[in-house]
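PROTEIN DESIGN WORKSHEET
SECTION A - STRUCTURE
LENGTH: 238
TOKENS:
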């Protein structure tokens, strides 16, 4: 039986600024229903990789395919929705208007919006302006907007930033439900969070791929036995 092509295939993505090479020939695949975590030290190239994937930043080289078919830069936003860290869209507008705009933009019914708002416990702040939200509620709003999009691949930068442990675990449960119908790429700074939610991990350092696989596979690569992700990270980035 012929094996189905990965949902997303990334080959040889490179990016440099002058003599500084930020991404160096990065490869990975993403399967249907998978949660892939991108981890690495500060400056490893995580954000640059995500921006090159969706076409916000022009890569110097490499190919991206969807279901085995090359997808040009101008069409990547049809397949991928990228949620960067630290943004506040339409900051002078109330939350209800922003979520309603996204729902209308993508043609979702009202009950879809209501369900997302309940999932993320946003109902207490629907009348507040975006710029008046706490960091945690702003993060919930951004996640709500991501869930009100139709693209099969969600790329989220630091999705748990601003949440306490209980909130983080709740959002992880939600993202696992979402991943059953889509696929997720998450850039995660906190390694414990990455260990909890990710099916596989892409470890970058100085723009290079140091490892790709499950925690067990990365532990074997690092000769770390049954180590946790923090030990594997330190072993591979030493």
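SECTION B - SEQUENCE
RESIDUE ASSIGNMENT:
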């Amino acid at each position: 039986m012929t094996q189905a092509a990965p949902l997303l295939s990334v080959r040889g993505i490179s990016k440099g600024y002058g003599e500084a090479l930020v991404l160096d020939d990065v490869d990975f695949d993403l399967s249907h229903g998978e949660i892939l975590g991108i981890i690495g030290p500060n400056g490893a190239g995580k954000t640059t990789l995500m921006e090159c994937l969706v076409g916000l930043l022009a890569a110097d080289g490499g190919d991206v395919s969807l279901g085995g078919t090359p997808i040009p830069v101008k069409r990547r936003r049809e397949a991928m929705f990228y949620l960067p860290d630290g943004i506040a869209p339409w900051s002078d507008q109330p939350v209800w208007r922003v979520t309603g705009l996204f729902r209308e933009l993508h043609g979702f019914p009202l009950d879809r919006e209501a369900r997302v708002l309940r999932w993320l416990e946003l109902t207490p702040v629907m009348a507040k302006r975006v710029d008046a939200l706490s960091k945690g509620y702003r993060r919930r709003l951004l996640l709500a907007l991501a869930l009100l999009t139709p693209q099969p691949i969600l790329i989220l930068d630091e999705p748990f930033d601003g949440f306490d442990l209980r909130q983080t675990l709740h959002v992880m449960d939600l993202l696992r439900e979402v991943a059953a119908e889509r696929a997720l790429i998450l850039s995660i700074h906190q390694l414990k969070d990455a260990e909890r939610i990710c099916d596989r991990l892409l470890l970058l350092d100085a723009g290079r791929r140091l490892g790709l696989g499950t925690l067990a596979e990365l532990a074997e690569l690092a000769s770390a036995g049954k180590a946790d992700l923090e030990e594997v990270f330190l072993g591979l980035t030493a």
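SECTION C - NOTES
The two ends are 42 Å apart (CA to CA).
The chain has nine helices and ten strands.
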